[in-house]
Structures are given as structure tokens and as C-alpha cells.
Specification:
The chain has about 140 residues and is of the alpha+beta class. The protein has one domain: HIT family, subunit A, CATH 3.30.428. Helices cover about 30% and strands about 20% of the residues. It contains three helices and five strands. Strands 1-2-3-5-4 form a five-stranded antiparallel β-sheet, with helices on one face. A hairpin with a 3-residue loop joins strand 1 and strand 2. The longest helix is centred in the middle third of the chain and has 22 residues. It is globular. It starts with a helix and ends in a 7-residue tail after the last helix. The chain binds guanosine-5'-monophosphate and zinc ion. The site of zinc ion has 6 residues, from helix 1.
């Protein structure tokens, strides 16, 4: 992925501040932090987002996120942590290489997360649940 900024970071063509690395992931400081101490965990293997990523890679992602989140919490002495992951431009994704945000949170930090709630008409959630359930991909045995 010649023009992918995160692939360039992973090839050390662009400098970054690394906080964690294993065979599948590297965690770096986000250049445009939502809050101080904001870290992004980059998959070493290029996938545009979570929906495109390999299941084996994804199964290693949460333990790595947990490790980084605990270190961020300890370092920043924060009250909480948001784990965020954007898929698609309309969802706020700006770099199309799988990454997971680890964002330290404090009371009255001014960060607008979580966003305001949407609402359902009567029965709408149950109807949507049925449709989503029908679209869950079943594994071939
Ligand atoms: P997204 O909006 O795709 O979920 O998140 C992309 C993140 O990557 C943003 O938070 C942005 O600040 C960060 N970012 C973009 N370019 C660079 C870069 O060159 N270096 C680092 N460290 N972070 C970057
Ligand atoms: Zn990439």
C-alpha cells in the first residue's frame, strides 16, 4: 500500500511515537489527539477497516487494545477510556487502514463522547433486530 499513511508509518518512512508493538500491531500517539494521551493501535497488515480485516487479526486486536488502554489509564491517571473504531467516511474514518482509538477521558474534559441518542418509533427496534439477525453471516461447517 504505497500511498497509505499508516503503511508508511509502519515502514518507518514517516516518524511516529511508538508506545507498543507486537507481531500484528503497533500503537502510536495520535497526531491530532481528541484528548492528551490519545493513542491509535495500527494493524501491521493493511486492511481498509474492520469489515475488511482478517478474523485472526481481529481476534488479537482486543487483547492489544486492553494492554494499551491499561497503560494509557495508568499514565494519564484518567477516569475512563473510550475505545473507538471508525468504518467508512460517513462514520468519521479519515485514514483507510485499520486502526483503533484509545482515548483517555476525564470528568468535564469537554470531549463530546458519547454522542446524543437517536429514538425509535414503537416496534421499530424489534423490526430492525429481525432484519439484522437475518443478515448475520453464518459460518460454513
Ligand atoms: P480516523 O478518523 O480514520 O478514525 O482516525 C485517523 C486518526 O489518525 C486521526 O485521529 C488522526 O489524527 C490520526 N493521524 C492522521 N495522520 C497521522 C499521522 O501522520 N501520524 C499520526 N500519529 N496520526 C495520524
Ligand atoms: Zn495501510
Amino acid at each position: 500500500m504505497d500511498n497509505c499513511i499508516f503503511c508508511k508509518i509502519l515502514r518507518n518512512e514517516i516518524p511516529s511515537s511508538t508506545v507498543y508493538e507486537d507481531d500484528k500491531f503497533r500503537a502510536i500517539m495520535d497526531i491530532g489527539p481528541v484528548a492528551k494521551g490519545h493513542v491509535i493501535l495500527l494493524a501491521k497488515e493493511h486492511a481498509a477497516n474492520l469489515l475488511e480485516a482478517d478474523d485472526e487479526l481481529l481476534s488479537a486486536a482486543l487483547p492489544a487494545v486492553k494492554k494499551v488502554a491499561k497503560a494509557v489509564k495508568k499514565t494519564m491517571n484518567c477516569d475512563g477510556i473510550n475505545i473507538l473504531q471508525n468504518n467508512g467516511e460517513e462514520a468519521g474514518q479519515t485514514v483507510f487502514h485499520l486502526h483503533i482509538h484509545v482515548i483517555p477521558r476525564n470528568k468535564e474534559d469537554g470531549v463530546k463522547l458519547p454522542p446524543p441518542m437517536a429514538t425509535y418509533a414503537d416496534g421499530e427496534a424489534a423490526e430492525l433486530a429481525k432484519k439484522i439477525a437475518e443478515n448475520i453471516e453464518r459460518r460454513e461447517c
